[in-house]
Design a protein that fits this description.
Layout lengths: L2 H6 L10 E3 L4 E4 L4 E6 L2 E2 L7 E2 L9
Antiparallel strand pairs: 1-2, 2-3, 3-4, 3-5
């Protein structure tokens, strides 16, 4: 994930910052506990495509 792109992208729900999870290829919003997938190198920033993080799931960066 390009660092400059990560600086620009925000959560579409709360407009908060995102954390890149390299292992799962997701962008994580800690505030909303949502994980947005990255498919073929392109972040899918649609709320309907995001998965909710489990209560015990740690955010990896």
């Amino acid at each position: 994930m390009d660092a400059k792109l990560l600086e620009i992208l925000v959560c579409p729900v709360c407009k908060g910052p995102l954390v890149f999870d390299k292992t799962r290829q997701e962008l994580i919003c800690k505030g909303d506990r949502l994980a947005y997938p990255i498919k073929d190198g392109i972040p899918v920033m649609l709320e309907g495509e995001a998965r909710e993080l489990a209560a015990d799931e740690e955010v990896r960066s």
